[in-house]
Amino acid sequence: MIKKVGVVGAGTMGSGIAALVASAGIPVVLLDIPGQEDRNELAKRGLERALKAKPAAFMDPDLARYVEIGNTEDHLEKLKDCDWVVEAIIEKPEPKRALYERLESLLKPTAIVSSNTSGIPMQVLLEGRSEAFRRRFLGTHFFNPPRYLHLLELIPTPETDPEVLKEIRRFGERILGKGTVLAKDRPGFIANRLGVYGMVQAVRLMEKHGLTIDEVDALTGPLLGRPNSATFRTADLTGLDVLKLVTEELAQATGEDFTLPEWVLRLVAEGRLGEKAGAGFYKRVDGEIYTLDYRTLEYVPRAKVDLPELKALWDLPLAERLPKVLELPGKYGAFLSELFARTAHYTLEKAPEIAYDLVAVDQALEWGFGWEEGPFKNMDALGHGRLEALFAEHGLSKPELLGKAQGAFYRNGTYLGFDGGYHPLPKREGVISLKALKSEGKTLLEGKEAALLDLGDGVALLEFRTKMNAIGEGVIRMLQKSLEYVEEKGYLGLVIGNEDPRAFSAGANLALILSLAQEGDWDELSLAVRQFQKASMSLRYSPFPVVVAPFGLTLGGGAEFTLHADAVQAHAELYMGLVEAGVGLLPAGGGTKEMLLRFTGELAPYEEADPFEGVKRAFNLIALAKTSTSALEAKKLGFLRDRDRISMNRDFLIADAKRRVLELAPDYRPPLPPKIRVLGSEALGNLRYAVWAFREAGEITDHDMRIGLEIAYVLSGGEGAPREVSEWDLLDLEREAFLKLLGTRKTQERIAYTLKTGKPLRN
Length: 763
Hints:
By secondary structure, the chain is α/β, with parallel strands linked by helices. 46% of the residues lie in helices and 14% in strands. An eight-stranded mixed sheet has the order 3-2-1-4-5-6-7-8. It has a seven-stranded mixed sheet with strand order 15-16-17-18-20-22-24, sandwiched between helices. It starts with a strand and ends in a 6-residue tail after the last helix. The mean pLDDT is 96.
């Protein structure tokens, strides 16, 4: 079992790996070569880089205390008790081999050693090593930044002990949260070999078809089911120097043509390396993003791609969108058609050489490059007949692997093996796929906005299905039906979760709220808010356990549902917040009440504690619309409790939440409604003064002040003497304040602006 990790090499990758391991609560030794004045200077600098990184490398900066730094001359002995040592030094075989020689005589016999090389063959690195060392060695290729990119390529050699591979795979998946893929020991492994080839082709075809950088990024991002950073923005984030190095290494190792155009090499020579240098394919000028004109190497204002045919495709699922994308008129269709043909052909030709199966190829591109669907799934969506015609159109031969396929690479729960036979899709232990459950007929209830699924073992799951999983009337109605169904049918409990890539729930349906407000339908709005509050409270007081499995964006109403669960099983990447103040409102689905209940409840056992500190903490959290940057920070902020748990790997989240229901179910009893101590006028006076002081200092607007005063009123329990109130007393105050703010012109302006731009308005 891996209890301590060593990382040698404190560059961008090494320090990022160390930060990820420390974020998982595992002690790390981070070493680099000695500095001149300070012997530990390079390791120290690497740790500081990780602490300052944006996006953050640590899930909680306090966990940097798990990292012990040193240098490879004075402190190699610090690795003696490490169970796994990751080498992430310069990409040259000689220094790596020299390091392994020193490690071999130092490490304990059970220690695993791996290299984070992005392409040097393992056999080259192992020259001169003993049989015992070889058995405990493999490649572990993380992707940058290690915290955020899901892929970890494992490259075993023929001599790697299967138990070593099994342990690294377990640790990578469960402790570090990675999606692990086995790759063959070939240059570039899987993801870089195919991904970099695709990037090079996109650059070349841009020139051939007369497109601009803006046009290529508009065409090769979400339109194709790929990240917003698309092609050139991705290169800027990675670094043009890194792209140049990787393409040169791949060309040398494979004998294939990965040559970048001369103008790209000129950018590298001039130091225009992308984001880290302030300029690359893009550049920020006076707060605006400018794009490189590759013909002149000057930067020009960004040009939006506006094509009616594109607008018609956006709402289609990827499988339906992809064939239509390749038929776009003019140069756009010609570019995309040739790009798809060349990258698909290369994938078909190289897959048997670089991977053990085509499932691994799809996973590598999905997890390492953020594709919605991998290349083989894309080819199935296009259709093999159309694919053959596309190859013929561009003068490409029919690959042998395509000839083996019988119309599809995936069919009926099987995939095409490189041997020509179809094999059952590999089952990942501990992973529950909602998509698979639906295909197996496990849907219990279904509506347009939500559905209830059977997870097995007496546990059901409520899945939201709206855009960004916004909560509206349909979701709340299905929640009520689901709670009734679970009770009537004798299920043990309920999980609330989904498989959306970005958002557990971005909150209430703001567009509907704004529409009703503008129409002056206040009775309907008051009823809707009360129904939302009832929904939150029903999660708390149902006669069976309810476990919420939040991840990604968990905002507003999504956070309020989470706060009212019996238990939370959160993904480590949790961006949770009560953000209503940002649109001129306050949490009215029980969020304001719940934070007051939690924070004052924490102080209750301590007679000497000032109860106002709990009120103040809740006020700051809500008025400042604080949002966590990880599940660990969500615990610090108070959104998660000590008893709530964290899954490092999103793939296991639903199964972990189900397991939590099964733990709670045998002797479950719903909690008794609490009495809440409110401070009345005493707290209200203090909070009013604080809000007024902020306004006098010019730090908030008049409308910010109005919002703050309404939040203060609810958290104080209104005017009057300190007293005990019920949850519903506070919920009534929440609802009243929410409707007051919604009735103001400035709040309606804020909501409209946010709906249009996705950004907050300070008016």
